[in-house]
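Posting this for the archive.
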Amino acid sequence: MNEPRPPDPSAPLETNDTATILAGTGLWVVALIVLLIMGPSPDHRWWIWTCVAGIGLGLFGCLYVRRRDRSINGGKPSSVGDEKDESVPGRTLS
């Protein structure tokens, strides 16, 4: 009877996509710095380009998410937990 109720599957989780992408991109930067310091053998130079590609895709993803959020919110940058969120019960538009 006192079992916790699972979350409603129809309600999406709200996350800060930009922060998530930047964290992943930061990990690629760290990996690139480590590889440049260690100097991989000629057979493993492709690892450097893998890190460069990860950084490039991360920056593209960050720009894409910001543009998507602006278009969804009518030109205003969004933030997680915005007071004008219609999906949160008990909140009203102001």
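The mean pLDDT is 83. The two ends are 40 Å apart (CA to CA).
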